[in-house]
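INFO  loader      accepted 1 record
INFO  loader      residues=156
INFO  predictor   begin
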Amino acid sequence: MEFCREIGSNMSGVQAVYSYASCMANDLAISDVARVFGLRASAIRYYERIGILPPPLRKNGQRCYEESVLFRLAVVQRARETGFTLDEIRNLFFGFDPGTRPRKRWRDLSQRKLAELEERMKRLKTMERLLKRMENCRCDALEECGKRLLSRTWHT
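INFO  predictor   done
INFO  writer      dumping tokens
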């Protein structure tokens, strides 16, 4: 067990998953699981509560995780890193017909996320253009800015 703690402190994220899994096939404490991913135990409990993680076995009242929870959390972490919300992650696991291959799940969700990102990037470009215009403002008062803005909106 001490060896596993050392592995966890010297590695982070997914790299440590395999080391932990090979070191302790079962009986992972919540603190061990949390440490592998740099999460708080409360985050692990929250993932259980919202159904992203299955409820763990219990021994003497303590949560006891199997190695499969590490693999599921690796997917959750990667999805979070790429901007997926918890609802989208839940959809990744449960929003498809049973037997749907991971490739199709990722592709469907990624296409939606990419469309969302494209729209967000368009909005950011518009914001950038507007901010650059505002930097060149020659108005003497904010009311004058408002008057000019309204006249542009109404007359364009």
